[in-house]
Specification:
Strand order of the largest sheet of chain A: 1-2
Mean pLDDT of chain B: 89
Radius of gyration of chain A: 19 Å
Order of helices and strands of chain A: HHHHEEHHHHHHH
Number of helices of chain B: 12
Order of helices and strands of chain B: EEEHEEHEHHHHHEHEHEEHHH
Strand content of chain A: under 5%
Largest interface: A-B, 23 and 30 residues
Shape of chain A: globular
Helix content of chain B: 40-55%
Oligomer: heterodimer
Helix content of chain A: over 70%
Distance between the termini of chain B: 44 Å
Low-confidence stretches of chain B: none
Structural class of chain B: alpha/beta
Radius of gyration of chain B: 18 Å
Mean pLDDT of chain A: 89
Low-confidence stretches of chain A: 292-299
């Protein structure tokens, strides 16, 4: 019984990290209908920035988050300006998705090679004093880094809810998502709204990178496996359903934890992919969306 | 206030407007009437910045707006109620109105403007928290007009206001438009298929056919014109020939 509770707790913690990875991906897909497959590499970039700050100045990775946000936000602006914004002229969504996939695939190569040049291809991780530490609650061990990840994932969920429902930027984002032309008639600068959204999405990848580098090791080419997790969570939540990303991530984490008992730890990622395929076949709109819709956020 | 000079507008290779010129003076209600596909909505889109003229110029209060993006034109004081309303369906009535006040000055005055919109269309106050998609057609049209007014425009473009609405409702909404024109001196440029209603509301009118302005004159004169009555208010020339 203790093992089951431990597995559930671990599933929730790892699921929160999965959600954190998917937020940025879901934002870009929901708002602009771009599939940014360079999301994993941008996550790794965030991890390296945090690693550098830790190595050079000894700053705790969690305290480096504001600097990582600034660096990756700027990377997001550059990504949008150089590669994604020309795709907005494409007439339909399918073309946007396909072309953004191809272009950001190219971005992976540029980023991964640049990171290998700067930080070498060797794997890096942050070994802080609390790494590997765990809190024991009623016999259940909860890792400190996992708990931090959960806290940050909840914070991101609340912040996104607040921004999207209460601020003018959020209303502009939602309006542009539902009808970009009508939004521009209302005085919304749609291009600027997209630019900021892309910056926020990549900054969220950077934040996820900080959590990843605190718990796992990173390499320049290691973004692809994290991207895959992000895509699975995004599909489970439903395209553009930002509210559902945290529960979808936790569900994936729980299923992975449970699968350790059934098929063993080496196959847990395969189980995630099986779920991904089943959901795509039988509920392509995701587990939390009633029907397929262009709406990306329900207030 | 608005001066359109010799514009040609194309959709890709397809030309929709040829050498169109028209003017709208401050405080006027001007209507543009014509049959389906004549180019009425294309003119509206060109004024609001959704389409760029190939040649010619569009100036608003002396500023050339040809090359400006739509959001900049909205900031200058031109607001549009688009055909089909184009509301943000999953946002509430209040949020739709708030997005209408996206220009800097309008944002500051949004609370007062919302109160004014609620006075014009009291049903919107009752529906404030409801999503736009759940409103009836008439309520949606009121919201579309309210959203356009939120930017405190000096020129209001209305594209096919009566489309899909019951005659009584159209009458009610057009009365509100006339009242705003009188009380706030708001200039209105109206595109309509309901020619009778449009000409009854307007001071002046233009008739467009096949992308070209055919005639211009006082709205009352158009209402008495036999040819216009025949073409737009009753029997079409095709039917007559048959």
């Amino acid at each position: 019984m203790e093992d089951v509770i431990q597995a559930i707790a671990s599933g929730i913690l790892v699921g929160a990290l999965y959600a954190l990875i998917a937020y940025g991906l879901g934002l870009i897909m929901g708002i602009m209908k771009f599939l940014n497959v360079a999301h994993g590499s941008l996550l790794i970039l965030g991890g390296y920035v945090s690693y550098w700050i830790f190595t050079l100045w000894g700053i705790n990775p969690y305290l480096s988050i504001p600097l990582v946000i600034i660096a990756t936000f700027l990377a997001g602006l550059i990504l949008y300006k150089l590669t994604l914004s020309p795709l907005l002229k494409l007439p339909d969504i399918e073309m946007r998705v396909a072309n953004s996939l191809l272009i950001t695939f190219g971005v992976i190569y540029v980023l991964d090679n640049a990171m290998a040049l700067i930080w070498t291809p060797n794997s890096r991780s942050i070994m802080a004093s609390y790494s590997g530490e765990a809190i024991n609650i009623f016999g259940v061990k909860l890792s400190l880094t996992g708990l931090c990840g959960l806290g940050i994932a909840i914070l991101v969920a609340v912040a996104l809810y607040f921004i999207l429902s209460k601020t003018y930027l959020g209303k502009h984002v939602r309006a542009a998502t539902q009808d970009a032309e009508a939004a521009s008639l209302c005085g919304v600068n749609v291009q600027r709204t997209y630019l900021i959204s892309c910056g926020i999405a990549v900054a969220l990848a950077g934040v996820a990178g900080v959590i990843v580098v605190s718990s796992y090791s990173i390499t320049p080419g290691g973004g692809l496996s994290w991207l895959l997790i992000g895509i699975v969570v995004m599909v489970l939540a439903g395209e553009g359903n930002i509210n559902a990303i945290l529960p979808a991530g936790i569900i994936l984490g729980l299923v992975e934890s449970a699968s350790i008992f059934v098929v063993g730890a080496p196959y847990r990622q395969a189980v995630a992919l099986v779920i991904f395929i089943i959901v795509l076949m039988f509920r392509p709109q995701g587990l939390f969306t009633k029907k397929r819709t262009d709406v990306y956020y329900n207030s | 206030m608005l001066e359109i000079s010799n514009i040609d507008v194309c959709y890709g290779d397809l030309q929709a407007l040829w050498d169109v010129s028209l003017t709208v003076g401050g405080g006027e209600i001007v209507t543009l009437v014509g049959s389906n596909g004549a180019g009425k909505s294309t003119i509206m889109k060109a004024i609001s910045g959704l389409l760029k003229p190939k040649t010619g110029s569009i100036s608003f209060e002396g500023i050339c707006v040809n090359k400006l993006p739509a959001h900049r034109i909205a900031e200058l004081g031109i607001s549009m109620v688009p055909e089909g309303r184009r509301l943000f369906p999953q946002m509430s009535v209040l949020e739709n109105l708030e997005v209408g006040a996206s220009a800097r000055e309008a944002k500051k005055a949004r609370h007062n403007t919302i109160s004014w919109i609620y006075e014009l269309f009291p049903i919107l106050r009752a529906r404030a928290r409801q999503r736009a998609v759940t409103l009836s057609g008439g309520e949606q049209q009121m919201l579309a007009i309210g959203r356009a007014l939120m930017s405190q425009p000096r020129l209001l473009l209305i594209d096919e206001m009566s489309l899909g609405l019951a005659p009584l409702l159209v009458q009610e909404i057009s009365q509100v438009i006339k009242d705003i024109n009188k009380s706030r001196k708001l200039t209105i440029f109206l595109v309509e298929q309901d020619v009778n209603m449009a000409l009854s509301m307007a001071d002046r009118g233009y008739i467009i056919e096949h992308g070209r302005i055919q005639s211009e004159g006082a709205a009352r004169a158009f209402l008495c014109n036999e040819r216009i009555k025949e073409a737009y208010l009753g029997i079409s020339p095709v039917e007559k020939a048959g």
